[in-house]
Amino acid sequence: MSTARQGAQWYKSSRSANQDACVEVAHWALETGVRDSKNPGGPELMFPADEWAAFDSAVRAGKFDLG
Fold this sequence. Notes:
Domain DUF397: 8-60
Pfam family, one: DUF397
Order of helices and strands: EEEH
Low-confidence stretches: none
Oligomer: single chain
Number of strands: 3
Distance between the termini: 38 Å
Helix content: 10-25%
Organism: Nocardia yunnanensis
Protein name: DUF397 domain-containing protein
Mean pLDDT: 86
């Protein structure tokens, strides 16, 4: 983990309640990180901030809904 990422504010969805099988997300100026909440010291997936914003907008618009 880079020094810039140490002390990051990771959070998970409020909809996940107290479940352990969740992802956590952290935002920086130029990128967004995603990691497994069960393994916070494990690998992180990093996405450019603009790509994450497009993904988030698509999710909120229901583009990935199965029903």
